[in-house]
Amino acid sequence: MTAQDAQPGRDVQNGRDPAQRLGMLLAWHGSATEARMRRALSAAGLTPRHAMTLMHLEAGPVSQRALAERLEVDPSVLVGLLNDLEGGALVERRRDPADRRRHNVAITPAGSAALRTTDAALDAVEQVLFAGLSEPERDVLRDLLGRIDTNAEDFTCGE
């Protein structure tokens, strides 16, 4: 056994530090980040999915079907999200005048205010999380994370 093998955290069998496995590092940092983000969002009374829904509506009204596709959720899940947001007067659903079978969803002034609160809270969290990274490094991180093979089917939401 070498001195390197005897170091704490080292897997003596293969010489790897198990704490440096990329998947485990990503899971650890993801869990910590999610906890911080949830605390920040709770200041506006929102969950991550509620906040993401409002973010997608910020640019203007969108059909329910298109919103479900953007959020990568089943339409039945979206109905539950919209019911919550509509109950808080943060969004409103209206029939599309051009196609009465279709509903359009729009953010309300209260929803825009909640989104501003959310953005400020998330900015504060991200400022702390990424303080050790320069702006170019943050761009590289975004690019690398975008290339990880994940999809909506991998995601389970506890909300």
Mean pLDDT: 86
First CA to last CA: what distance?
A: 48 Å
Shape: elongated
SSE arrangement, N to C: HHEHHEEHH
Rg, rounded, reads 21 Å
Low-confidence stretches: 1-8
Task: Identify the strand order in the major beta sheet.
Answer: 1-3-2
What profile does the largest beta sheet have?
Answer: 3 strands, antiparallel
Structural class: mainly alpha
Structural features, described:
This protein is mainly α and 159 residues long. It contains 6 helices and 3 strands. It has helices at residues 22-42, 48-57, 64-71, 75-87, 109-129, 135-146; strands at residues 62-63, 91-96, 99-107. Helix 1 packs across helix 5. The chain starts with 21 loop residues before the first helix and ends in a 13-residue tail after the last helix.
Summarize the structure.
With 159 residues, the chain is mainly alpha-helical. Helices cover 53% and strands 11% of the residues.
Lay out the secondary structure:
Elements (H helix, E strand, L loop, with lengths): L21 H21 L5 H10 L4 E2 H8 L3 H13 L3 E6 L2 E9 L1 H21 L5 H12 L13
Antiparallel strand pairs: 1-3, 2-3
Which properties best describe this structure?
159 residues; 6 helices; 3 strands; three-stranded antiparallel sheet; disordered N terminus; 53% helix
